[in-house]
Prior knowledge:
Family: Belongs to the UDP-glycosyltransferase family.
Structural class: alpha/beta
Radius of gyration: 22 Å
Largest sheet: 6 strands, mixed
Protein name: UDP-glycosyltransferase 73B4
Number of domains: 2
CATH class of the largest domain: Alpha Beta
InterPro entries: Glyco_transf_N, UDP_glucos_trans
Keywords: Transferase
Distance between the termini: 36 Å
Number of helices: 13
CATH topology of the largest domain: Rossmann fold
GO molecular function: UDP-glycosyltransferase activity
Order of helices and strands: EHEHEHHEHHEEHHEHEHEHHH
Amino acid sequence: xATLITNPQNQTQPSSTTMxxxxxxxxxxxxxxxxxxxLLQLSCLVSSxxxxxxxxxxxxxxxxxxxxxxxxxNPHDLQKIHFHDIPTPHFDSPPPxxxxxxxxxxxxxxxxxxxxxxxxxFSAFLLDLSKKFTRxxxxxxxxxxxxxQDIGSVPNAESWRRSRLGSRGAGRSSYGWSGMPTHAxxxxxxxxxxACRRVSRKGWRGWAPQPRILDHEAVGGFVxxxxxxxxxxxxxxxxxxxxxxxxxxxxxxxxxxxxVLGMGxxxxxxxxxxxxxxxxxxxxxxxxxxxxGEGERVRRRAEDVGxxxxxxxxxxxxxxxxxxxFIAHINRM
Length: 333
């Protein structure tokens, strides 16, 4: 039987206020970078209301989320979160195979199978916490629904999917950042050397603080594949986007940024995704984005959208009021 382990290096001692609190929140992200980021930011937001928050994830992903959050989250806010590790069985993590005949990313299957083992230790942790608080609220990634399925046997527990929180404004949080693959890989170049070795003392191979970069006044546009975190960061920063979607949710996100919000232009149409995108096409998109006429309208629209989003998350803003409503709901007597 797997046992859920509290991480002593990141576990803060509960204050008297926390101990007297009748509600606790468990946050359960899907173990992938884009999911870890959003729910850790949400954890800090919920914790800022004085609600004890327990962030549960496999050890390597928990450490990953914390290490990459240091540049964006106030360390004092991060220390308020109670981190708990769920051990997972060892599994091989093969690199993606671009020549695979399968359209499904089969290299992710081992991780999926490993996640199946999380149900039992999570249920044990939930049961233990339910004995200490009047109500336990679980906020989980929709892809982790199978892990929390035993909640029906715990009478004082309730669950919220991350997507459902959007109706109460929590899903509109302006925080988060996009990233690189969970496991870094070195690609051999044609000369037989390692690209990673060649840039080891020159380039930046680590985690780029993308929100800070986009927030810099010198940045006028962003060529993006339109992952959701990148879109959110562009919107919050008021930065126009040259959209170049590749896969998954990126085409839909690009449609939102370009077609709905009007704060971007398309580098390459999704219908032509199988075609080679040449440097001239990227250059043309950048010139359009940064030039007069169309580019000026798009950049001005991006600034306006950014101002509206930032205002919504401040005290008295619509998103903040919705979050206040959610906190009041879970604290109901």
